[in-house]
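Subgroup meeting minutes
Present: P.N., E.W., G.H.
Scribe: E.W.

1. P.N. recapped why we're keeping a running log of single-chain structure predictions: easier to compare across weeks, and new members can see raw inputs and outputs side by side.
2. G.H. added today's entry (283 aa).
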Amino acid sequence: MALKLRTDQKTIWRRIRNLERARILEGREVVANPYFIGHQPIRMILNVANHDKTKDNVISQLIHVDGTVLILDWQGPTLHLLLFCEKSERAISRKIGLVSSISGCDEPIVLRNSEALGFYECKLKASMKDLLIMRSLRKNPRKRVQQIAKEVHLSNRTVERRISALTANHAFFHMVRMGFQNVEGLTCSAFVFYSDQANKLTGDAEVASRLQRLVFSATKGNRISQFTFVCRNASESEEMKRWLQTIDGIEKVMMGLVTKYILVTDWLDFEMEQMISRQVRRD
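Output recorded in log:
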């Protein structure tokens, strides 16, 4: 991160602590790469039918759909969901159908694989040691190696070696609990659709250079990128949307104001316990 932002690690940690004190970052946890646990990432953008009357109920139902990881509630009818689905086409189709039915959206935008944005494919096979270490880190990514080693009954050296392997193979990543209600200004989320990959490289660089209060970006997709950023007011938000639409190669911009950020990961704990149980039976 420090290299990407052209600064040093101390500055990064100081800014993170400032965000935590301001309750903009309300916590973080370790989330398994979907490919590492035999799943596939899917993002869905959908408009809730009769949103002014039904949206809160729709969100409460989507929270309980297995595989739901993140819900971004935009002002108005739009929801953005991140889901981890089993890899079979039947399971994926069933999950998309369930979410569409709950929301009353007949034509959701569904982004899959590389277009699901931000995920590296992990080819590392999960071992019992890896699963136990990841379970230990799940709710406390800052946990010391010595404490993890004691919990999982492994040596410090083994834990360090396995964490290095997990990190190198992108087996997990950190997700933060954002307190957007504590942000001074308006939090905006934008999906940018490019005409081709060549335009995307230059377009993403131009967007990132303009966004001074960038919170999050996911630019791994071939023709789609996502940017979450803070604007001072609604006027600046509209100005930013108009500017995005003028960039060469951008075909479409979907942008909204984030009103809720809902991280849903408890089902991952159950999934990991199931994987550990299967490993025990095999051993």
